[in-house]
User: Fold these one by one.
Assistant:
Number 1:
Amino acid sequence: MIVKNIISSLWLAPASDAKERLSAILDSAPKGTEIFFRADDVGVPGDNCRRMIEIFRAHGVPLHLAVTPAWLTESRWATLQEWGGGDDFLCWHQHGWRHVNHQKTGKKGEFGTDRSRVAKKADLARGQEKLQSIMGASFQPFFTPPWNRFDSETAEVLSELGFKAVSRSDGEQKKVPLSDTLPDIFTNVDLHTRGEADPADGWNALMEDFEVAVRTGRVGVMLHHQRMNQAAFDFLDDCLSVIVRNNAVRLLRFDLL
């Protein structure tokens, strides 16, 4: 398993007013604004993964966990289940197959144009079958692609395999449009894979992302637990506490759409 654990600059210089800024943004949200959280690259239990799940559990906020099938084993699943304390607030779904880049040029992708339809379908089906076998009824028929992108052939295959929805990054719908039968529950706020060199710029950009997302009526937040440090966990705890006290927002779950 190869997953980057680079900590973005803003988490190396915590902002003392972050909770207040976020609270002000959410206070301006129109009533009925939807919010959901999606955690990628799940499958190998570790301290950061445990801490992330425990924070969501403590606040009673749903978390959508995108699990890479090749990384999951029966024993790892048992540990993840124990941390969750049941599936009431967790939505376990598929995150590719092995999280391996197959693109020869350009942006990374596991299910892009540089692979045959047959190969892509074989990996998607293999991952689906493995998660169904290990997770049983806890597996939900949703798909998050590694690096948040796939090609049009993959979209067709996902429908053929019975997936009910996908979750990519905002903007991917314009690049690879999907049919009405395969909706895209996209994310538009990225907490941890941020590239701003200056921490202040990072905090300003993150708050702007929240502001823009709120104006759309749906805030989809993407997490990567491997890239979290104490500051990132503290902000996540603050973020969830602000949300659960806000009567204008509604927590969204993929399986209840």
Note: The chain has eight helices and eight strands.
Number 2:
Amino acid sequence: MIGHNTDVIGFEQSLLNSFPNLPNKALVFGTGGAAKAVEYVLRKLSIEFKLVSRKPGVHQYSYEQVSPEVIRETKLLINTTPTGMAPHITEAPQIPYENIGPTHCLFDLIYNPERTLFLQKGEQQGATVQNGMEMLVLQAEESWKIWSAASGNSH
């Protein structure tokens, strides 16, 4: 058996395309399956990161622990949760957005809506933002390659 994770390929390529000057510290909002792919990519790129979840843990913050200082020190913010996805477009991770600035990069794996409230709040503070559409397209292309190779088709 062979396993493939197209989340890894899609996220890594989109991250590198979106943010040529990647920060060296990240916060990853969420701890589910998509977060695992993001963690893998961040480790591969030697980006230090902390997870953020509803409950604190050994290697993760709770949302309440994400202080203004944590936001100021951590320039890459990645949402891997469904928070803000249609139809719940008025929701966003509860963090101190006022401490985001022009040196921050916000990546939301959500692609519907195109600009989640998380991304809108980052943009209002001057941050560079990216949604999950490119990641989705890159994943689809990689899946097509995998399935085409598995079935013996080249197109």
Note: Residues 6-144 form a domain with the Rossmann fold fold (CATH 3.40.50.720).
Number 3:
Amino acid sequence: MRFAHLRARDSDHLHLAVIDGSDAIFVHDLLDPAPATLQGLIDGGDAPLAMLRSALAEDRAPRHPLGEFAFGSAVLSPPAVLAVGLNYAAHSSELGLKTDAAPTVFTLWPNSLTGHEQTTSWPRTLSESVDYEAELGVIIGRPAKDVPAEDALDVVWGYTVVNDITARDIQFAEAQWSRCKSFDGFTPTGPFVVTADEVPDPQDLHIWTVVDGHTVQDASTDQMVRPVAALISHLSQSITLQPGTLISTGSPGGAGYSRDPQIFLRDRSTVTVGIDGIGELTTHCRIVG
């Protein structure tokens, strides 16, 4: 199954929907009471998801053309957003940074979350070196502590697409990476969350980025230094991963910072990051001031 948070184009109120091809079926038309957000659905455990599958099989709920709606962030209120840096050798090399013995982990702030086809803007005075990073997002489905790597994929609820937008000049000027990646709107997610059963192997996914019509990243998740299962296992040794936690698993090579000439996101740039089988996530850019 795949899910999205949708709103009418003249409204700010988001509704959780099941996506079936080009149709949206609102969860509140399938269940009563219904979880209002993906987080609510995850918090409910296995039962509401099973009820949703049964209700969908009856095919009685109204369907709406997906094109009538705007997207919110695929995750709205996760307990945490954990990001992993330098998890593809090509990316760490091109940034001139060393892949350490343990994963580089930092947090992204919730104000940075935004949705598909939304506009992200930032002041010119803060940065003119803003970069893109296509990443596989992993959403935890149940509390996970001290999980062995061989069991780690069992705690995954689903997957999404993340664009880890980064102000490179700030990244290299500060000792931590949270601020340079957490401007308002710097973490687009979506458009969809795909349940884990639809992704048999998270290390066998084509991941790519197109900026202003040019392909700038083109790779596979099998190039991760540490696969998804190893990341979950490592993180769960020090913290209990709560249901709904989003883990952004790192970006492949091809970042704009390392290109010659460099490619940064400009005023009115459009960037699309995608993962085959999960979705294509588009962001429109504006530089103000």
Note: The domain at 2-71 is CATH 2.30.30.230 (SH3 type barrels.).
